[in-house]
From TrEMBL:
UniProt: Mg(2+) 1 binding residues: 59, 76, 78-79, 207
Species, as recorded: Rhodalgimonas zhirmunskyi
Source organism phylogeny: Bacteria, Pseudomonadati, Pseudomonadota, Alphaproteobacteria, Rhodobacterales
Superkingdom of origin: Bacteria
Binding site for substrate: 59, 78-81, 207
The protein's name: 3'(2'),5'-bisphosphate nucleotidase CysQ
Amino acid sequence: MRTLSLAAGAKIMEIYESDDFEVKSKSDDSPVTAADEAADAIISAGLREAFPDMALVTEEQSASHTQDVSTFLIVDPLDGTKEFVHRRGDFTVNIALVEDGVPTRGVVYAPAKGRMFLTLADGSAVEEDGPFGDEMGTTRPIRVSEPDNDALMVVASKSHLTDETKDYIAKYATKDFKSAGSSLKFCLVATGEADLYPRVGRTMEWDTAAGHAVLNGAGGAVVRFEDHEALTYGKDGFANPYFIAYAPGVDLKPA
């Protein structure tokens, strides 16, 4: 998964650094570029070769969205396409393994930022220091913060900050607020750079599974917004409800 994320990231950056690239619209009006499609081809081929008997769900292959599975690989080859299109750098390659509805292994690679987050075989989460080669380099264990509920660090979406999300954040005593794109928000909570990430807006499981796995490995949690029950995977159409990702020391407010 790490190797495929690096190969996909290299292709994405080749297109990102080109003079121009075409942006098309999908049926839901979300953007898609040649980078999404090229990265998907690299990752899908590699995963199918390595894990031929494992179900594969990927954003760019709509036929994969009709599966009824609880254990599967799930891919967003370029999460944060809007950040990519606007050349803001906050985009990631997401690859995850879900087992019985729980994301257990994940890789989140942000090629423009040179950051790589992943889970190890024992389930713990690390950040790898670049430059990234064929062999894994130096890694550092990452761990969620011990938050101060009177001065929380909050992170939220850069491109999808809804009024509902702002209203929910207003229930907390916040020290700082930062916006970030893609699944990097999960990773900022996982490293302790943020305490809380609420998402009161539409997401799909491929947007969240890899970051969720990394956050789990760092001692964090992701729960449903409405009832604070654990967010599970393999749902109908792989669509997520609203959710909250957080360090467990945060005193969660009701929806």
